[in-house]
From TrEMBL:
<feature type="binding site">
    <location>
        <position position="257"/>
    </location>
    <ligand>
        <name>Zn(2+)</name>
    </ligand>
</feature>
<dbReference type="Pfam" id="PF03331">
    <property type="entry name" value="LpxC"/>
</dbReference>
<feature type="active site" description="Proton donor">
    <location>
        <position position="280"/>
    </location>
</feature>
<feature type="binding site">
    <location>
        <position position="253"/>
    </location>
    <ligand>
        <name>Zn(2+)</name>
    </ligand>
</feature>
<dbReference type="InterPro" id="IPR015870">
    <property type="entry name" value="UDP-acyl_N-AcGlcN_deAcase_N"/>
</dbReference>
<dbReference type="InterPro" id="IPR004463">
    <property type="entry name" value="UDP-acyl_GlcNac_deAcase"/>
</dbReference>
<keyword id="KW-0479">Metal-binding</keyword>
<dbReference type="GO" id="GO:0046872">
    <property type="term" value="F:metal ion binding"/>
</dbReference>
<dbReference type="InterPro" id="IPR011334">
    <property type="entry name" value="UDP-acyl_GlcNac_deAcase_C"/>
</dbReference>
<keyword id="KW-0862">Zinc</keyword>
<comment type="function">
    <text>Catalyzes the hydrolysis of UDP-3-O-myristoyl-N-acetylglucosamine to form UDP-3-O-myristoylglucosamine and acetate, the committed step in lipid A biosynthesis.</text>
</comment>
<dbReference type="GO" id="GO:0016020">
    <property type="term" value="C:membrane"/>
</dbReference>
<comment type="similarity">
    <text>Belongs to the LpxC family.</text>
</comment>
<keyword id="KW-0441">Lipid A biosynthesis</keyword>
<keyword id="KW-0443">Lipid metabolism</keyword>
<feature type="binding site">
    <location>
        <position position="89"/>
    </location>
    <ligand>
        <name>Zn(2+)</name>
    </ligand>
</feature>
<comment type="pathway">
    <text>Glycolipid biosynthesis; lipid IV(A) biosynthesis; lipid IV(A) from (3R)-3-hydroxytetradecanoyl-[acyl-carrier-protein] and UDP-N-acetyl-alpha-D-glucosamine: step 2/6.</text>
</comment>
Amino acid sequence: MNAPAGWSRREGTLARPLALSGHGLHTGRRVNVRILPADADGPRGIVFRRKQGADVLAELAVSPALRRGQPLCTMLESANGIRVRTVEHLLASLLTCEIDRATVELDAEEVPILDGSAQPWIEAIRACGRIELPHAKRFIRVLRPVKIADGEGTRDERSISIEPSSAYEMAVHNDLKGFGALRWDGAVTPASFAEEIAPSRSYGRVKWAIPAILAGYVRGMPILRGARLSCTAAIVGNRVLGGMRVPDEFVRHRVLDLVGDMAMAGAPLLGRVTALRPSHEMNYRLVAELLATRDAWEWAEFPA
């Protein structure tokens, strides 16, 4: 079998360290991030390293086993309670820029939201460059369908499934009152992600945001404290303040989040994901169920 079109056959890492700063969407806190290249002999995958000054609080290797449920984001938590919040945009960017091994250092709990999309990450990673490592790139080949569904047959049905395919593909359906039914269907490759998906921003209705922020304070849980017009596609009525950045921006952002959440599997997929009204929780349930169903997948390599 040939390697999937558009992807490299060897693993890669950054050619030089990357540094970015910003604020968290949910905590609102300032955070500095450094992404460090990996050694060829180091561990596979992406590792988050929480730091406080010179002290390392925890290292979290990306895995569904460390995922903890949080509203409106994907969060990882170590055994000693150290958290890294809102990892999905960065994970999607690293996966599709084919940075297979790296360490992400943060001096606060939340990855910065930047402009609400993955585009700043893509641009920064590309500016640093990629170097190949002497390891064959690994993919997760899906062998049989896996499906998660809630409310089947009802108006509020949500579902997400994956089935075998020779490429990484997604068909995502979403709807939003005032904007109708939205759909994105295509192959996920480094090029298609950067051009079609990465520019799409986090979005929400202004009338939902204020109650959510207040509820978060009451519950002691940070929700949207850092939301600003500069990092969110804000919806008022049937329009987006300042307009949409790309066509069907809302469903494309669902694809962005889905790529980032599925990246917790540790490699690009050879499978077709079909999702109806996906959420972070549904995305997590699918990747966790896939990996737990050992006869539903296998590692695949395509040596040069």
